[in-house]
Design goal:
Elements lengths: L2 E7 L3 E7 L6 E8 L7 H14 L1 E8 L9 H17 L3 E5 L3 H11 L11 H16 L1 H8 L1
Parallel strand pairs: 1-4, 4-5
Antiparallel strand pairs: 1-2, 2-3
Helix pairs in contact: 3-4
């Protein structure tokens, strides 16, 4: 079975999480960092490396909607990134509502005793893990049928 990758795409970072091969659990993997928001070549290249290394068959990309369900500038840039990912990797990239995942990630880090000044070292990959975990839980039957 191919794995699923979860991504939390931000202005200068992209958090990455990965499912297990049975599509039951997710784990945070890494944060891909870039100097400028529009410099995506190395980010896309790293994602391609991870796809090959872990035999990924589907990408779940967090969509940062506003609390009133509208799409702002960040959502627009994320949808552009989705298009780039699909063209470059040839994989399906599904969108998943990511509202409040950063807040949830910070709560997890606080509960684990991680000092606030170290949050930036973990927050994006933990948010990606939350996005992927929710997707796996909400789509388990369909995933097992599709990827079995």
């Amino acid at each position: 079975m191919k794995r699923i990758m979860g991504l939390d795409f931000g202005g200068k970072t992209c958090g990455v999480a990965l499912s297990d091969s049975l599509l039951i659990t997710a784990r945070p993997l890494e944060i891909i960092r870039r100097d400028r928001e529009n410099k995506l070549r190395r980010t896309l290249a790293r994602i391609e490396e991870l796809i090959r290394e872990f035999d990924v068959g589907l990408i779940v990309l967090g969509l940062p909607l506003n609390m009133d369900d509208t799409q702002g500038e960040r959502a627009r840039k994320t949808l552009e990134f989705q298009d780039s990912l699909q063209r470059r990797t040839g994989l399906p990239v599904v969108m998943s509502d990511e509202r409040l995942t950063t807040v949830e990630a910070e709560e997890i880090m606080r509960a684990q005793g991680i000092p606030r000044e170290k949050y930036s070292e973990y927050v994006d990959m933990i948010a990606a893990n939350i996005i992927l975990t929710e997707y796996l839980e909400n789509n388990r039957a369909m995933l097992l049928e599709r990827f079995a």
